[in-house]
């Protein structure tokens, strides 16, 4: 290689040990058979030295990347070729659609092939740029100086900038304590609920037992004397025994329907899960109230059965009248536990 190649950019492959050098030729020594390069990068990593000298004994392969040698134009030879060239043939023009289609197909095929080659070339260059650097690169040999890099960070200036942009402690405290207004649905109550009063019923006598409902309401007990006095006062104002039987039977029915599942279970589409209710009644006012409750349950599509002794049917007038009404509601009446009508 002569000195005319000085300034050209080449790539020199020196094997697996030395690697691949790439740079600009600064000197060519023909006597010592050496080449000097500047702006050198070894295995795509820029070298810190200004100039690298390579011996031809170490060079395995050499590629010319960019040349500074100018080639002379051969005007004389081209003119001679033009003089000796045979006459060109006249172009044959035709309007045949078959020839035009063939020409278009050939042109499209060349474009597609060129596009594929460009994509493959781009993929190869991308892979070489990513994976060509060996593991034993000089970059990995240099340890990262954490202390030097940390000294470049001005902590005080950064915190001053953060404090200048942020709000003061008082403003931040007020923003945190701001409560966003709650949004209510159409079925929610916007009025705040008061503290519930669970002991709403009071009696004028001392009691030893209390009852608590499902909602937590406390119901006190009363003595027998107070109960009789309440019934007497009810009859004085017009609440006769028949009215009280209807009222208590209806209230007991509502409680039983709630325990059975309410409207979720008692609907016309749920015919295969009808609940069965058995009521034990006697020949007294409480028995009449139980029969009345059974009549209301039967009207709500429940399988209701009244278990009452045979002698109790005629012993109490209210009980017998309630049994007649119950029989009109398709309810069952049995006199013993061993009956097969359940």
Automatic annotation (TrEMBL):
Major localization class: cytoplasm
Keyword field: Cytoplasm
Record Gene3D superfamilies: 2.30.30.100, YjeF N-terminal domain
Gene Ontology biological process terms, A to Z: deadenylation-independent decapping of nuclear-transcribed mRNA; P-body assembly
Organism in which the protein naturally occurs: Araneus ventricosus (Orbweaver spider)
Cross-referenced InterPro entries: DFDF, FDF_dom, Lsm14-like_N, Lsm16_N, YjeF_N_dom, YjeF_N_dom_sf
Protein name per UniProt: Enhancer of mRNA-decapping protein 3
GO molecular function terms attached to this record: mRNA binding
